[in-house]
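Hello,

I think I submitted the S-adenosylmethionine job twice by accident. Can you confirm which output corresponds to this input? Input:
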Amino acid sequence: MPYRDDFGRAIHYLRVSVTDRCNLRCVYCMPGEGIEKQSHADILRYEELEQILRIAAELGINKVRLTGGEPLVRLGLVDFVRRVAAIPGIDDLSLTTNGTLLARHASALAEAGLQRVNISLDTLRPERFAQITRLGRLEDVWAGLEAARAAGLKPIKMNMVVVRGLNDDEVSDFARRTLSDGWHVRFIELMPIGANVEWAFSRVVPVAEIAARIEAEVGSLQPVHGPTGNGPARYYQLPGAAGTIGFIAALSDHFCSSCNRLRLTADGRLRPCLMSEEEIDLRGPLRAGASDQELKELLTRAIQRKPQRHHLDRTLGPQDRTMAQIGG
Ligand code: SAM
Ligand code: SF4
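Support: Only one job matched these inputs. Its output is below.
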């Protein structure tokens, strides 16, 4: 049974950042020169992560998503996936990736027990992809997507962060992919988080505006269930589409009342809420020899510290860490 927090929410989902490093520098996520890297000693070792996940599973966490930074830049990820997949109680194991290294790893990941991938993709245009990611090539994402499909990692969700003046003119092109290619597309509101919160705040496109644009340019949106349940997204379908369209409105329609998750940063801090700077250190106690019971109490404390809701619509977001450091 999952553990419930003080507001009755069942917390059964842990997002784990396995690295703060990334091979891209998306303009809304990181400065061009990157962020100061944590040393290898700062980052949790795979054995430490495995111990935390085993304890979390005993507390009712059954769903784990590996993220980062870019999780596929960390060596040994496939073996780690194999070990996590074998933890009793964890029955939903997925990965969020920018897709650029997926062609190399998709089949091994699937064979190791990974079930699904979310690929972050903000544009369908090669030059714009290079501009947004500063370092990436769109063709690598296409190869990664194909490899994920061939490996049976499904459903694949394509996550697009919509940024005013940068890629908002492409939302209908993404929506059309649900018709032509059966994509599951999710539109994500830009969150003012990290180094450049004022910039981000001025670039947010509310999901209502994205939906209105799709309805005007492509077709009417019918509410449906999501491909893997609803979570924070609301799902729709265009008539005749095999794929779905999800909207994640972190700002305009906060979904805190159904929040079911905790986050673990690459350096071993539990973050009860993405939007709050509060963290609970697991790495220190873990390395000081804390017992499983003591670690379980820290996990329980993190669940109890989950706030009822965030107030990003009224105040700026956390500025202590970027999404790449927290694990978006
Ligand atoms: N590197 C991987 C990737 O890009 O999928 C995983 C980590 S990345 C931080 C996870 C997700 O967070 C990506 O979909 C990215 O677009 C999103 N993200 C990063 N900064 C964001 C922001 N300020 N607002 C909304 N989403 C953001
Ligand atoms: Fe890297 Fe993902 Fe951040 Fe882009 S969004 S810079 S791919 S961590």
